[in-house]
Structure formats: structure tokens, C-alpha cells
Amino acid sequence: MPEPSTDAGTETLSFGPLENLFGYQLRRAWTILRKDFTASVEGLGVRHLSFSLLSLISDNPGINQGKAGEMLDIQRPNMVSLINEMNERGWVERRTDLQDRRALSLYLTEEGQRILAESFNRIEAHEEVLLGQLSSAEKDQLFDMLKRISAS
């Protein structure tokens, strides 16, 4: 929890009731995670959404483009732009879905697999540093609680 700061050394400033709001603390934690994530994957061209999509495609080769967007809660126009960008980078390829010729299935290229592996290694290291002050049991408990909140 950040300490109250002073403005020009004369007045102590406080976060007030924000300090006791779960959403505010979660947002502050997310801001720190996001900054460190960005620094850890610097030079790879990976963002949160592209990493999530690479991971999803890796675990579900041939996943339908629409289903992937639905799972990651990405609106269709944004999904198309993201896949176009990843395709241009040579990370993902689209193939006509054999079951529904109107749909496109997504597959990682070798370069996409390489970028995912490198990103994953860097992200694991970044999370280890950020969560290093927590015990293994605390990490498990936090992860379980976040998954329950996400599922609601």
C-alpha cells in the first residue's frame, strides 16, 4: 500500500476511501503487472492480447476465429485487426474451417511458436519477481480467488 504523499512538503495527501476498495487495489495491482509485462516482453512485439491469443491457439490448434474472440472477450472488429497483425508478423495462419467453410481456423506458425515460448519464459520470470514476496500457499490462494471472481 503506498504511503500518503506530501504536496510541496506542506500537506499530507491520502487516497481516502479508495484504499479500502477491492476494485481500486486490483486496478493498482493490474497497472503494476501491465507495466512490468510490457517491459519483460520488450522487443518481441507482444502485447497482452496477442500473448493471450497465441496461448489459446497453441493449446487449441485450429480453433475457430469467432470462438477464440468469444473466449478472450474480444469484439469481432478488434479480433480481425489483431489476427491481421499477427498474420502479417508471421505468427498465425488462417485456414478455411473444414466443418464450416465460412469460418476460419487459426494455427500458429513456427515463428508464432517461437515468440510464444520466448514470451512465456519472460512472463514467468516477471511474475516470479512480482509475486516473490508471497509464499507458495499465498500465491495458490490468490490465484484460486482470482479464478473464482473471473468465473462469476
UniProtKB/TrEMBL annotation:
Record Gene3D superfamilies: Winged helix-like DNA-binding domain superfamily/Winged helix DNA-binding domain
Keywords per UniProt: DNA-binding, Transcription, Transcription regulation
GO molecular function ontology, one term from the record: DNA-binding transcription factor activity
InterPro entries: HTH_MarR-typ, WH-like_DNA-bd_sf, WH_DNA-bd_sf
Domain HTH marR-type: 19-151
Alphabetical list of PANTHER family matching this protein: TRANSCRIPTIONAL REGULATOR, MARR (PTHR42756), TRANSCRIPTIONAL REPRESSOR OF EMRAB OPERON (PTHR42756:SF1)
Protein name as it appears in the record: MarR family transcriptional regulator
Protein species of origin: Altericroceibacterium indicum
